[in-house]
From TrEMBL, chain A:
This is CoB--CoM heterodisulfide reductase iron-sulfur subunit A family protein. PROSITE patterns: 4FE4S_FER_1, 4FE4S_FER_2. Residues 248-277, 296-330, 594-623, 625-654 form the 4Fe-4S ferredoxin-type domain. The lineage of its organism: Bacteria, Bacillati, Chloroflexota, Chloroflexia, Chloroflexales. Belongs to the HdrA family. It comes from the Bacteria.
Automatic annotation (TrEMBL), chain B:
InterPro entries: MvhD/FlpD (IPR003813). It comes from Candidatus Chloroploca mongolica. This is Hydrogenase iron-sulfur subunit. Residues 11-133 form the F420-non-reducing hydrogenase iron-sulfur subunit D domain. Keywords: Iron, Iron-sulfur, Metal-binding, Oxidoreductase. It holds the Pfam family FlpD.
Amino acid sequence: MSNDQIPPPHASPDEERVGVYVCHCGSNIARTIAVEDVALWSEQQEHVVVARDYKFMCSSLGQELIEQDIQAKGLSRIVVAACSPHMHERTFRGACQRAGLNPYLFEMANIRELTSWATDDREAATSKAKAQVKGAIERAVLQEPLEPLFVDINPNTLVVGGGIAGLTAALELADSGYHVYLVDRDSSIGGQMAKLDKTFPTLDCAACILTPKMVDAANHPNITLMTWSEVVAVDGFVGNFSVQVRHKPRYVIEDLCTGCGTCIEKCPSRVLDQHFEVGLGYHKAIDRNFPQAVPKYPVIDTTHCTYFQRGKCRACQVVCPTNAIDFTQKETFEQLEVGNIILATGYEQFDARRVPQYGYGRLANVFTSMEFERMVNAAGPTSGQVVLRDGVTAPQSVGIIHCVGSRDKNYNEYCSRACCMAALKFAHLVHERVPDAEVYNFYIDIRAAGKHYEEFYHRVLEEGTHFIRGRVAEVTDAARGPGEEGSLIIQAEDTLIGKQRRIPVDMVILMVGMEARHDSRNVASTFGLGCDFEGWFTERHAKLDPVVTMTEGILIAGACQGPKAIPESVAQGSAAAARVSGLIGRRTIKLEPVRASIEAAACSGCRICNNVCPYHAIVFHEEIKISEVITALCQGCGACVAACPSAAITGAHFTREQVLSQIDGLLWDMQPGVLVLA
Amino acid sequence: MAEPTTFQPVIIGFLCNWCSYRAADLAGTARTHYAPTMRPIRVMCTARVEPEFVLKALRSGADGVLIAGCHPGECHYVEGNIKALRRFLLLKRMLTQFGIEPQRVQLVWAAASEGHQLAAAVDRMTEELRALGPLHWQQTVLRAKVDIPLIKLEVGG
Ligand SMILES: Cc1cc2nc3c(=O)[nH]c(=O)nc-3n(C[C@H](O)[C@H](O)[C@H](O)COP(=O)(O)OP(=O)(O)OC[C@H]3O[C@@H](n4cnc5c(N)ncnc54)[C@H](O)[C@@H]3O)c2cc1C
Ligand code: SF4
Ligand code: SF4
Ligand code: FES
């Protein structure tokens, strides 16, 4: 082969011409590894045409070195021994490409993070580096050129969850001119924020900033709103998802209902509302979550509807001026075609009953934070009055307990982020509504990291709230003296003065933490994404890629990714929308070619791989009894490759031959069965 | 046979791209020092590791094989690590028949943030292998009187 020719890609491994480049990384690598020695040694190895060491391979000069050698020496494979591929694989692939070499004919040996930074033993590090280089060479010679995959993108987007995160994402996409299907399983959009009264740190009313957005979403020509609906199946891949949505029956014909509310007024069945009012208020058997619900159509709660339970009543049907009530409605299914999906399914609250020593459910005047939100809400069950369970008595003293179920090894180890601030907000609101009440906040640390959060904390401090640092041991009504009679006593160690304290109060508020939705694992599996141990959806990269998941085309935003307050939820909603519109704008998407493929002739039709694939990317052709990988669906994990008993599946860029050959290279200095001493 | 204490075992480490490879990166970035005994191979997921890879490594002179992946529930391909675990348990049973000590092939979980744990796993394994001494594949496996051809040792390699 002449030097000035780029060899054809399918030359036999023996004909490959490898260039090896060993980086000093200033002194990061050179201090512990004899880089010149590694380069000289590399040059002696089979296939290697040129080997060099250089101060900074990633610099433009370093990259040019590679580019020049590819062209001048006809190199067909490049090995760079430097830092982690997570750092610079893309950089060097770019250099190969510029010089006309397929970027997948490149292999990196990570001798910095994995070697020079992990030991001081120069001799051992140098020999480990040589083994790594040898492994890379042996793998590289078996590499094959790969071409990225291009697929078209359907410009419609599905947003699942209409809380503040999902609403933000939907509105931003719709405003950019793209169509959005917004699906929420509740009867109204708005999510948890719709229950809140005022929001920290600005204390603007939640409804005032949320309801306009809800209305915008409902009226937006680019948004199709589907409430009381759930996604039951997802097929396809980025750019081309096919989604099945189930619409639950409302028993109200949306096209006829004007939202006048006469039915709600006349419905005789009044029940405790455990959902929106978290047990503090009531709703009718036909009702909506709250008067400003979007959409305005009510829903019949069949378990409490007299007609559904006993076959008579029909009061709503009788009074409805437009004949919108339909007791015979059935669930319906609808198929949507979308290019991207944003999940914004939010969080649930920790069940306060799980901490029995705090007495929730047993001691009447112990409230959860969400109950208190509803209580202070002017549109809530007590019209904004702060009162005890009896509904009339204003508390003269209130104890607010932070971190209930959070930062606690027995429950959730993580911090729920929003509760400290919400607790400060509550302290302020108690002072505002019951001016002479004493307020005690029991905290472990005050987490006030956010714009204007610390300032808000100081404001609450100045309002005369007492702060007691220490985890509360118990809330009890067992009085030890006349001063405690008829009160709830909060027992805690005040760690700042090192003393046990018993504080009698009239009302206790438990700042319960945030938890992943109880069904988040099922939802994750429907959409084919990962969840962490606690059930939060897993992002592609915690720092650098927080709204994208490992499944291309599926994004996450808001509290479904982890506990967060409104500002971060909104930021993620916008970020997800921006990512999606960026993708749509490109019309086609380029996918990594690291994917599996099945050699039809070798496939025995056993179907083992069909069930192994987490993305249902393998279809079985019944007629010819052969399995096939839908390339665009495959995410390249390699599970099927390892599982196929007929060795019929190839994992591009991680083929069996490449890995076995790399093992040989890595163990070049070892002899099977022979005693080797260091 | 007593081995000299200076014996440096050689471990082939299969690190999943998303968690454990990043854990190893982090160990380096944090300058967590550990035994330079592990020679790494990056795989997209532990589910990609075929039993043949492990056998091949042992046969070609490695004293041990470490497979490291994401914690259960955190695999970036949903539950590839659980598949790897199942396969690993089967493989171990087979290796015992060969007379290969269980410490020679290990599966550990290390999240991207657990550089320290990964380094500790390599150190621990190095010590265990040092105590066992080198693996003499031919002698060990031949002594075990197992019908080797039954196992596809040669697939692709
Ligand atoms: C007591 C309390 C007070 C708070 N006060 C404040 C405050 O003052 N300021 C602040 O910034 N933050 C506050 N927060 C935090 C705030 O509630 C959250 O940051 C915010 O609601 C997160 O919004 P989200 O859209 O991510 O999730 P959510 O509000 O939970 O919305 C999720 C939506 O998705 C829907 N959904 C869920 N699963 C599915 C499914 N499978 N299919 C279809 N739809 C689904 C739900 O019905 C819901 O509408 C407070 C939290 C608590 C608990
Ligand atoms: S596991 Fe292999 S042989 Fe079995 S169906 Fe899949 S590709 Fe075909
Ligand atoms: S490599 Fe195989 S199992 Fe993994 S995603 Fe692709 S087709 Fe599915
Ligand atoms: S990606 Fe780490 S084990 Fe699957």
